[in-house]
Amino acid sequence: MPAIVQFIVQRLAAALLTLVGAILLLFVIIQFVPGDLASILLGPRATPELRAQFAERMGLDRSIPEQIFLFFRRAVSGDLGTDVVTGRDILSIILDVLPNTLQLAGAGLLISLAFGIALGCIAALKPGSLIDTVLGVASVAFITTPAFVVAIFLLLIFSLKLHWLPVTGAGAPGDPLDRLSHLILPATALSIGWIGYLARLVRASLLEVLSEQHVRMMRAYGVPEGRIVRHFALRLALVPMVAVMGIGVGDMISNAVFVEIIFARPGIGTLIYNAILNRNFPIVQAGILFTVLTYVTCNLLVDVINALLDPRIARSLNKPA
Amino acid sequence: MSGAAISHLSVDFATKGGIHHAVRDISLAAGPGRILGLVGESGSGKSTVALALMGLLAGNAEVTSGALQLGSESYDLARAQATAALRGIRMAMIFQDPFASLNPVFSIRAHLTEVLSRRSPELDGEARNRAAMEALAAVGIDRPEIRLAQYPHELSGGMRQRVAIAMALLVRPDLLIADEPTTALDATVEAQVMQQICGLRDRIGCSILLITHSLGLVAQYCDDIAVMYAGELVEQGSVAAVAAKPGHPYARALLACEVTIDAPRGADARASRFRIIPGDLPDPLHLPSGCIFRTRCDMAIADCARIVPPPVTVNGEPGHVARCIRVNEK
Amino acid sequence: MDVYLPILRDIWRSPTGRIGLVLVILILLFAILGPVFSVAPNKIAVQDRFQGPSLQHLLGTDNLGRDLFSRTAQGTRAALAISLIVVALSLLIGAIIGVAAGMAGGWIDRGVIVLFDIISAYPAVILAMGLIALYGVGFTNLLLVVTLLFIPQFGRMARAQTLSLRHQPFIDAERVLGLPMAKLVWRHFLPNVLGPLIVLASMNVPVVITIEAGLSFIGLGVQPPQASLGSLIRDGYVFLNQSWWPTIGSAITLALATLGSTLFGEALRDAADPKLRGRHK
Asked: Rounded distance, CA B328 to CA B314, Å?
């Protein structure tokens, strides 16, 4: 079996294991909540009828292993129950808003990558220059300003003062242009910190690669400098960047909560948040489950992309640790 | 083709302490199909000579004078980008550390075809692929079709250096510079790699500048030798002539450290190489007056501090010169 | 002390480190001395609402006429206290678990790693939100939850350090001499593991400040009437149409606190590890 296939299989198994562990942790977290589980999870709406239904569903009268089994079976089969407030299927509630969050995080990721790589390259090609210094200072400022602060100021300036872009919501469902205009500010808020972080990372990594001997080798064979940088050096320099994108995705999902709340965008973040305010815990639980699923999947993708980018990774990770 | 000749090459480095004249007035020649060994200690400036020829010096270096004669054309090395158009066309270079000279995220094929896309732009993809495979086979790599798809980390050091030689082979240069090509390899692999370099010379008839600190390597594979010390050339000539009767005390000391030129080299000789000459290279910012070697020379006299030694023909042999005022005394 | 002075000197010598150190000291002074100079931070005076900066109210007043200078100082104090406690707690717990796992090896070690991976499989803020929602808001829960988020980082590093240390010859020598395991850990492992962990801790201070501010911003962190930088921004944000001042003062304070601690943390890292010096500048 080629190293890359072996690697993917191994990462897939690890991701599944992590997912199982994460579901188990969720179960444990809920078990340890002090007080009566049904009244806590159902909140103020706990009629005796609902409580009985809940106890039946969770198998509260059964043994703990059986409860875990039930919990898992429901989680895996996508049976997340019915929302007590709206009477809708919880899975469909989640799937309704999930695309909004994925679009937001995806757009944030794209903006971070595009600007982070570009700015990092500009800085690395003229180290010590004025533009390098300016970019360095800007990067630190970008990294250290929390996303929700950026979101508020973007909203303040571009929506409330200048009226350039819409204030709230995710845009009309069938209108791509409207949706895009609703995406710009939240995605920018989400990406600012990572633009700074990636710019610094790409700069450092590209500078290191450009000083390596194989770059000198390419020069000795007359390969044009532009091609050396863009084709040969950059691909190697992007390896450490892709490696941190796993963390980046988690950060995007985390910050999406704040950004969605500020821009009143429907999404997993606002769904969980509103469910918390309403003490509607089945929704909270399902929402958390889906963010974990998204995060673990993205991490798996990042690992595979990195292994495709750098053939050494599949090799080294296949060896027993 | 009349080989490669370097004349009056001088290189300065701007350092914190001041201008460092790293290479001073070096002239060398390597005839077509001949291998010139440039030897010297670390810091003697031999690698600077190579990088100056290729135009790959670091930003703080400046070629203050020098010309490269390649065939019938002459190139002023003091001009920026003087040899840029020759790289990968008439000049090629093999670097010291094969573990660092290939890009780890590109296949062997990508390295070889990149060279071809500059050297032979007329070839289409299929022809380039075939040429790359032939080049790998020519440097003694078995199953080249499999190796082409592999990545550098899947190859041994010796194999990677052969890939570098294959890249040079694809260029068919007039001048090949090999900068300590075997320093990072074991002795057995060293012989294989050197044989491939000689094979390349036989195949395309280029001049080779072999930079090394190993006199054994020079004795075994080179036709001519040039000895550098602290940025200057102190002796040059045919390997046979210099080995038989070195004119400069430094060359003599080097040869004394090394085992005799005909016998195979032993491990103890490797270990003790150069250690026998007492003292260190002079501080490049404060070179001694007169002869630069006199502070470490066991036969220095008062005149050595006053006279900058001119090149003197040793023993009346044409082409064998040494820069020592006491050359022909004994 | 001789070990620490050169590190401080190095931090002072790097331009960004110097800015970081100055900012950290200013923020600390503001947090410690601010409340001394302020009027009652929770005193409501509705007639004075939404005032701009003045001599009486250096940063203006909020929607209830409370003095924003006093409240910002109080919030800064909360942010610093929480971040320092969280970082110290997660360092301590992470170090104990990590060293223990590294020493024990085998299935204990693997189990700990899997547990860390599982905690890290949750996006940090989401896990924190869920836990706080289930277990209730409040200062203690906030501390414990955020600490939990940071334990894996410290634990992994402590474990890695332990593993690399375990095979050092002097450890084997001590084991042969019959030094009890507890003494071995106490005498050799903790001091050697501590250095990198402290650097990691200082790098994490701004991260914790940001998370605390975020949670307080959405009402799951520090609870009113106690002010926090996040809740101040929230209060200001709700009334953005009336006045910018409540948001701006606290947002800038928050940004300066994270900026200062980031620059300081990076300078400390560079000073503590000479190998890395210059690579990240």
From this structure: 7
Inform me whether the C-beta atom of residue B178 falls under 8 Å from chain A C-beta atoms.
Answer: no
The whole-angstrom separation of Cα B271 and Cα B258 is: 10
User: Which of A4, A209, A216, A217 is the best substitution to test chain B (most B C-beta atoms within 10 A)?
Assistant: A217
Q: Kindly list the distances between the CA atom of residue C114 and the CA atoms of A19, A152, A251, C93, in Å, as whole numbers in the listed order.
A: 11, 38, 21, 17
Residues A18 and A144 in one domain: no
Nearest to C118 among A22, A143, A251 (CB): A22
Asked if A288 and A190 sit in the same domain, the reply is: no
**Minimal-distance CA residue of chain C relative to A20:** C118
Closest residue in chain A to residue C134, using alpha carbons only: A33
A1 and A53 co-located in one domain? yes
pLDDT-derived band at A228 (thresholds 50, 70, 90) equals: very high
Calculate mean pLDDT across residues C82-101.
93
Nearest-angstrom CA–CA distance, A11 and A2: 14
Domain total in chain A: 2
pLDDT of C120 over the 70 cut: yes
Q: Mean of the pLDDT values across residues C159-182?
A: 75
Q: Confidence class of residue A121 from pLDDT cuts 50, 70 and 90?
A: very high
Between A2 and C256, the more confident residue is C256
Q: Please say if the pLDDT value at position C127 is more than 80.
A: yes
Q: Does C240 touch chain A (CB under 8 A)?
A: yes
Indicate contact of C with A: 3+ CB pairs under 8 A: yes
ipTM: 0.85
Residues in C closer than 8 angstroms to A255, CB to CB, are: 125, 214
> If you average pLDDT over residues B16-37, what whole number do you get?
89
A99 has a pLDDT exceeding 80 = yes
- A145 and A181 in a single domain? The answer is yes
Q: Which two tokens stand for residue A120?
A: 């990092």
B61–A contact, CB cutoff 8 A: no
- Give the N- to C-terminal CA distance of chain A in Å, as an integer: 19
* Residue C35, burial from CB neighbour count under 10 angstroms (0-12, 13-18, 19+): middle
Minimal CA separation from A46 to chain C, in Å:
16
Domain enclosing residue A73, as ranges? 1-85+278-321
Mean pLDDT of B49-76: 89
- Those residues whose C-beta lies under 8 Å from the C-beta of residue B197, and which sit 6 or more positions away, are B35, B94, B165, B176, B178, B181, B208, B210, B221
The closest alpha carbon to C265, from C195, C208, C199, C209, belongs to: C199
Q: What percent of chain A has pLDDT over 90?
A: 37
pLDDT of residue C90: 95
Q: What is the mean pLDDT of residues C53-58?
A: 68
Q: In this complex, is the C-beta atom of A226 within 8 Å of any C-beta atom belonging to chain B?
A: no
A132 exposed, middle or buried (CB, 10 Å; 0-12, 13-18, 19+)?
middle
Chain A positions touching C134 (Cβ under 8 A) are 29-30, 33, 40, 281, 284
Is A51 found in the same domain as A125?
Answer: no
Does A45 lie at the interface with B, CB-CB under 8 angstroms? no
Q: Is the pLDDT of residue A140 over 80?
A: yes
Determine, for residues A220 and B95 on separate chains, whether the beta-carbon distance falls below 8 Å: yes
**What's the whole-number mean pLDDT along residues C277-281?**
38
Q: Are residues A139 and A250 in the same domain?
A: yes
Indicate whether A210 belongs to any domain: yes
State the pLDDT at residue B34. 92
Q: Do A140 and C254 touch (CB under 8 A)?
A: no
CB atoms within 10 A of CB A319: 6
For B139-148, how does the pLDDT look when each residue is reduced to its tens digit (9 = 90+)?
Answer: 889 899 999 9
Residue C138 at interface with chain A, using a CB cutoff of 8 Å? no
A101 and A179 fall within a common domain: yes
Decide which of B187 and C208 is more confident. C208
Same domain flag for A129 and A262: yes
